[in-house]
Amino acid sequence: MSIRNLFGMGCIMKTKELTKQVRDKVVEKYEAGLGYKKISRALNISLSTIKSIIRKWKEYGTTANLPRGGRPPKLKSRTRRK
Asked: From which residue to which does the signal peptide run (predicted)?
């Protein structure tokens, strides 16, 4: 059985997102003049992750989690607590 069959139509499952502190550290090292590869090796994070963090930081000016799309919840948080 191939990986394609295990995970659907060629989509590989994503991992957990990085903490804000780690993303801030990436931007801090980038502003200090380090390149993507050096940051990647220093923090042991993949090169593509470093690139996406820097790209989002340049575009939105923040390292906070961006809002995601999707259907809004049917129940309000207050109703769920009851």
From this structure: none
pTM above 0.70, yes or no: no
Domain hosting 47: range is 18-61
Of 15, 25, 33, 14, give the one whose Cα is nearest residue 63. 25
Burial class (CB in 10 A: 0-12, 13-18, 19+), 68: exposed
- Report pLDDT digits (tens) over 9-61: 555 556 688 999 999 999 999 999 999 999 999 999 999 999 999 999 999 99
Q: How far is CA 62 from CA 19, 41, 43, 71, in A?
A: 13, 23, 19, 25
Residue ranges in the chain assigned as alpha helix (H)? 3-6, 20-31, 36-43, 47-60, 77-81
